[in-house]
Write a structure and sequence with these properties.
- The protein has helices at residues 18-31, 38-42, 49-57, 64-81, 91-100, 113-123, 146-155, 169-178, 205-210, and strands at residues 5-8, 104-108, 131-133, 162-166, 181-185, 200-202.
- It is α/β, with parallel strands linked by helices.
- The protein folds into two domains: 5-16 and 86-214, Rossmann fold, CATH 3.40.50.1000; 18-83, DNA polymerase, domain 1 (Orthogonal Bundle).
- It has a six-stranded parallel beta sheet with strand order 3-2-1-4-5-6.
- Helix 1 crosses helix 4.
- The protein is globular, with a radius of gyration of 17 Å.
- The relative contact order is 0.17.
């Protein structure tokens, strides 16, 4: 299978940001009286606030309190954490390789619009992206398929011609619900059993680039290199 388009998650996939998102959520929830353990929040990163807030605080993200918490979390993340984030190794090189192969690159993320621009700038890939979808393009965040479906529409390709690159079980579930295949990366902090359903699993963008020719991106039958490969 030679995929024509690649849908890209950002947090935990291109940028090492999942822990930073977790810390921002823990701090803001504590301000509002919610004792949400780091480990509990960490396993939910990859979902949007519409899923996370009901899970950890029992409140709707659309309620006045939920909106305030979400806004404060966003402001804290952008001011304290975003300036210090780094991309994973070989992110730009991997995307350049995909573009050289004629693949269309479309962002499919639960991140908010105001965060996405900064994240792509940090990743150094703004000029390589041909389409973007964010939380504003979907009613429900991952693992619902809304964001992936919106990215598929922007790609103009049918689901069998598209693969998603992601790092969480929520990416895998959302893409599969939308009919797209998934290549998963361990760099977001999830183990292989959590990423079951992906056509292949690699350590990080550099690992995928090193195995590119033998991967699903290169048109070969994918495999799952071990964590030390």
């Amino acid at each position: 299978m030679a995929y024509r388009a690649v849908l890209l998650d950002v947090d935990g996939t291109l940028i090492d940001s999942n822990d930073a998102h977790t810390r921002a959520w823990v701090e803001v929830l504590a301000r509002h009286g919610f004792d949400a353990p780091y480990e509990e929040i960490r396993r939910l990163i990859g979902m949007g606030s519409d899923k996370l807030l009901p899970e950890v605080a029992g409140i709707s993200s659309e309620s006045p309190r939920g909106k305030q918490i979400s806004e404060e979390r966003g402001e804290l993340f952008r001011s304290r954490y975003l300036p210090h984030l780094k991309p994973f190794p070989s992110v730009r090189e991997l995307l350049e390789r995909m573009r050289a192969d004629g693949k269309q690159l479309v962002i499919a993320t639960s991140a908010h619009d105001e965060e996405l621009k900064g994240l792509l700038k940090i990743a150094g890939v703004e000029d390589l992206i041909q389409g973007e979808t964010s939380s504003s393009d979907a009613e429900n965040s991952k693992p619902d398929p809304d964001i992936v479906a919106a990215a598929l529409r922007k790609s103009g390709c049918p689901p069998p011609d598209v693969v998603m690159l992601g790092d969480t079980p929520y990416d895998v579930e959302a893409a599969r619900k939308a009919g797209a295949a998934v290549i998963a990366l361990r760099c977001g902090g999830w183990a292989d059993p959590d990423l079951a359903g992906a056509v292949a699993i690699y350590n990080d963008p550099a690992d995928l680039l090193a195995h590119y020719d033998g991967s699903a991106l290169g048109g070969s039958t994918p495999r799952t290199p071990g964590p030390d490969n």
